[in-house]
What does this fold into?
Amino acid sequence: MITFLARRVVSMIITIILASFIGFFLIELPPGSIVDIKIDQLRAQGGNVPQDQIEALKRRYGVDDPLHIKYWKWVSRTLQGDFGTSFETDTPVAGIIAQRLPITFALTFGTALFAWLISIPLGVYLATNRSSIPDYIITFVQFLGIAIPNFALALILMVFAALVLRQDVGLGFFSPQYVGAPWSFAKFLNLLSNLWIPVVVLGASATAGLTRVMRANLLDVLNAQYIQTARAKGLREHAVVWKHAVRNAVHPLVMSIGYLLPAIVVGDALAGVILNLPTLGALYLRALQATDMYLGITILMMQCIMLLLGNLIADLLLAWVDPRVRLE
It folds into this structure.
């Protein structure tokens, strides 16, 4: 186990270094810079921008520095715990991320819990009731959940909640009258009434996909010889399914943790923009549009680190769920 962890840590460090090179280069690749955006903003306010002011902006943001100088400035500051300053807002990147990270964590973990609590029992039910009418109906609904883009589903649910449920739908987590209002029981109820929309939107495709995977894997496992042996010994069908079959069919769901953690960092950016959710996904999209280099590369590296940690945790959990898996 120690040897496995040591190898994984070394490979993770090498991967992070390579990802920082590639990510920094890709963020710098599009034409234009933050200076161009600042100049357009100043000109939109009226008047021309003198050349000395343009040069001052270039020196301030270091847009004329070679790529390796820009990279070294970012790396050296990051190793000291300073992720730089946002070009667009002139505020520390760490503070901007700290404001949105708890909300993103809570929403993503809530969505993942929603998907797991539904997909596992529903997949077991569909596998043990194959070719039944509920199987066909739920399968059709699952295909819709996978096929409909999250941003389109967000618009559909908002219209449904407003016109059918007569719900005072707001953008974000609160209705307009509760935005900025002090916390109260009414505001908490309003939060719950609006929270179901982003949870369903972000969890629909994941739930449908995990349910299909659980159903398909369980059908294969139920035909295995050891399952037939367990039935021949007189075990109850409930024990055969949940104690023996499900434990081996759940492997892909455990491995899904590998991409769950990076989803915590970014999530679904388009759905976040449409629902006006204060998550890192919408912030990352905005940073790329504004060529906000330090903010964009910091969120990108957080996603890379979370992906590597997620895969490591998934491997350890898989070894715990299935003793046949060996990490050495």
Remarks:
- The first helix runs from residue 2 to 28.
- The chain has 15 helices and no strands.
